[in-house]
Specification:
The protein is α+β, with helices and mostly antiparallel strands. The chain is 31% helix and 20% strand. The two termini are 28 Å apart.
Length: 285
């Protein structure tokens, strides 16, 4: 019951406060969650070990596979990083790229040290090419240190009721102290996508940002299926040795929106194509 209510909150049926209320029994008792249109049956055809497909209109799960099992989530971590930034900062403020940003592990946008980019441009670098140097820069800008930013990430996860999630860094680099579940990632993604600044960026196929000093940087979205003729409207990728291939996809088909999360996939785009084929068979509204 609690999970169904929280799902309703994150889908926007009931406004979610910034901090948990002292008592929620009265308003939550009135929540009505619509039944799903239908359910998918695709278990034997997917390589991902953790999967969830949500019907966003109804706020209901139409397919799930090990949805509560905690796993590394790679750069899907950046959804929380992005959420903290848009909730607390103006997108047009200039931020200087700090020393050490070029030394972070993993994917980078190669932001020039000492040059300035707007928060909005850094958010684009965070969400499209999944730049770890953008995550590092935004974390320091927000909190002054990576440790303090991680504390803020975990506090926000707790406030959102993400009980199967714990963060150790803002980018998604493998750590024994960083994990989530398909259910938690889906709730976080659904909540974050309600913010226009996040949704618009996750829905771009590419972008160009320019530093205050005039240095241009071009990048493309890492979600390969967004560059093809598919009903995917927004997404986020993640890949590490421990997490394998991870994927969030916002799908609009047959008049409905669906959110798909894949964790620990061996062939995420094959998995996603299988799910898309089944979603296209859902009833047209």
């Amino acid at each position: 019951m609690y999970r169904s209510i929280l799902a309703a909150l994150l889908m926007g049926i009931v406004p979610l406060p910034a901090t948990p209320p002292q008592s929620t029994s009265a308003p939550l008792a009135q929540v009505q969650i619509a039944p799903p249109v239908s359910r998918l049956s695709i278990a034997e055809r997917l390589s991902a070990s953790g999967v969830i497909v949500l019907d966003l209109q109804g706020g209901q799960q139409i397919y799930g596979k090990q949805t509560d099992v905690e796993r590394p989530m790679a750069s899907l971590t950046k959804l929380m990083t992005a959420l903290l930034i848009v909730e607390n900062h103006s997108l047009d403020v200039w931020v200087k790229i700090p020393s050490g940003a070029d030394k972070v592990d993993g994917s980078k946008a190669y932001l020039p040290e000492g040059e300035q980019f707007t928060v909005g441009d850094l958010l684009s670098a965070l969400l499209l090419p999944s730049a770890n140097d953008a995550a590092y820069t935004l974390a320091l800008y927000h909190s002054g240190s990576i440790t303090a930013f991680v504390d803020a990430m975990n506090a926000r996860a707790e406030a959102l009721g993400l009980k199967g999630t714990h963060y150790a860094n803002p980018s998604g680099i493998d750590s024994s102290q960083q994990w989530s579940t398909p259910q938690d990632v889906a709730w976080l993604a659904a909540f974050a996508l309600r913010n226009p600044a996040i949704r618009s960026r996750m829905g771009k196929r590419g972008d160009r940002i320019v530093s205050r000093e005039g240095t241009p940087i071009h990048f493309t979205h890492t979600h390969a299926l967004m560059h093809a003729a598919t009903p995917i409207e927004a997404g986020k990728t993640g890949t590490t040795e421990a997490a394998k291939q991870c994927l969030v996809s916002l799908v609009k088909t047959n008049g409905r929106e669906y959110l798909v999360v894949l964790l620990h996939s061996l062939q995420r785009y094959t998995d996603m194509s299988i799910i898309l084929d089944d979603l296209k068979k859902q009833p047209v509204l």
